[in-house]
Amino acid sequence: MKAKLSLVRMVLLAAAIRISTASPQNSHGQPTGMQPEAQQLLRRMGDYLAAQKQFAVNTENSIEVVLKSGQKIQFDGPATAVVSRPNKMRAHRRSDLFNQEFIYDGKSLTLYSPKEKLYATTAAPGTVDEMLDFAREKLDIVAPASEFLYKNVAEQMLKGATSGFVVGQSIVAGVKCTQLAFRSEEFDWQVWVEDGARPVPRKFILTSKKVAGEPQMAVLMKSWDLAPKVSADEFSFTAPKDAKKIDFLLLTSGSAKSK
Amino acid sequence: MKRLWLSLPLAIVSLVFIVEFSVQSPIGIRFVGDAQAIIGMPWTPLSFAGVARRSMYRAAVYNAAVTNAAVANAAAANYAYANAAQAQAAAANASAAQAAAASAAAAASAAQSAASALPIGSTVPYLPPNCSSTVISGTNYFNCNGVFYKPGFEGNHIVYIVSQP
Fold it and tell me: Which of A142, A149, A211, A244 has the highest number of chain B CBs within 10 A, making it the mutation to test binding with B?
């Protein structure tokens, strides 16, 4: 009975939150459609990131899965990424179920699973942006936090957006931020941009509206280093002695060849 | 284990849905089942902006699993993985959750080794127990009681293909 009551309360709370955020004419008084200030701040963030020649970011990622019962379970994991534009990147993801390194030196891309001690290497395009496209389209590989590594990130994000507004001020990861909320047909997404002279993203939430249970994924950018100390061999992969080389199956299988 | 085998027919029946509904999450959890089953997130960088969404994965992921036996086997293993998530949901703390995941993975491996004569080309997400690493003509394989598995990355996931080296 107690559980039932609290469930009712949760539903009511959820409904209340929904009403207060979904209605375009709430206490914030934001207009419907795309608010220019929201777009401008997102573009400011994108331009700022694109102008950084080298940076390192530490993130905490979470993703929800929806069980058959409707129950949602969240999985967590940290990830780090170091980027040296235009053509170098290294990232490491250590989630509940996943431990993987991603190394790109401008010529080749390596994916390494330390637990299994297996790695695959392939020739890759010459810039970070092209490499991320290549990895996603040809290898079906997703690099940690890669949605923020593209140079034209704001334009790409806004492409499908139908509305957006500035939610207001917030403190994320200990710093003052401005919260932005956008909608597209299938997704709602929010970005928290650091206030002041360094408009880096601090948090990103994506809600899949067309998936049952509307699961979310979230990236919390705990720390940004815009002048990271990068060693000469930071972006080159040297296989550990007992590691074994394997293939990217999408490059070697028949289906990849036929594409 | 019993539950796993009981659910096999369901897994096979739902084969048609696997290609359509299996999704890959950014952190590499793969849950497969019928249309009502566990759903991850159809998420790739900027997919929410409509950039090349899900095209590759859907086209290629179960390409290698061509025969019923192979698919049933892979489905059983995946189903065990799904059970792991449910066990994790039920588990009250992290260590219990890990133990549950480990036992479900073991069940998946057992399911694989129980399935006799896997066709060459079958893809499975786990190796059965007691495999040894071996190199044949410069390619890495795992020899599991005389059955050779070739590991490879399928997207961010490591999978094992039953092979004839």
Answer: A142
- Write out the two tokens for A210: 């067309």
Count how many domains chain B has.
1
With beta carbons less than 8 A apart as the criterion, state whether B35 and B16 touch: no
- Is residue B159 one of the residues assigned to a domain? no
Nearest residue to B112 via CA among B161, B65, B74: B74
DSSP 8-state assignment for residue A214:
-
Antiparallel, parallel or unpaired: β B139-144 and B131-136: antiparallel
Whether B124 maps to a domain, the answer reads no
Give yes or no for B24 touching A (CB within 8 A).
yes
| B7, part of any domain | yes
Q: Which two tokens stand for residue A132?
A: 């991320």
The mean pLDDT of B39-46, rounded to a whole number, is: 51
Which has the closest alpha carbon to A61: A35, A86, A36, A93?
A: A93
State the residue range of the domain holding B77: 2-116
Rounded to two decimals, the ipTM of the complex is: 0.74
A257: nearest CA in chain B? B60
- CB within 8 A of B46, min separation 6: which ones? A147, A150, A156, A157
With CB atoms and an 8 Å threshold, state whether A98 touches B133. no
Residue located via tokens 């100390």: A229
Residue B31 lies in a domain: yes
**pLDDT score at A190:** 95
Q: Do B27 and A63 touch (CB under 8 A)?
A: yes
In tens digits, chain A (259 residues) has pLDDT values of 455 556 556 555 555 554 444 444 444 555 579 999 999 999 999 999 999 999 999 999 988 888 878 888 888 889 999 999 999 999 999 876 678 999 999 999 999 999 999 999 999 999 999 999 899 888 888 776 678 889 899 998 898 899 999 999 999 999 999 999 999 888 899 999 999 999 999 999 999 888 888 888 899 999 999 999 998 799 999 999 999 999 998 887 644 333 3
Quote the CA–CA distance of A99 and A144 in Å, as a whole number: 11
- Domains located in chain A, CATH noted: 52-257 (2.50.20.10)
In the numeric block, the tokens 């200990």 are attached to: A174
Rounded CA gap, B78 and B19, in Å?
A: 13
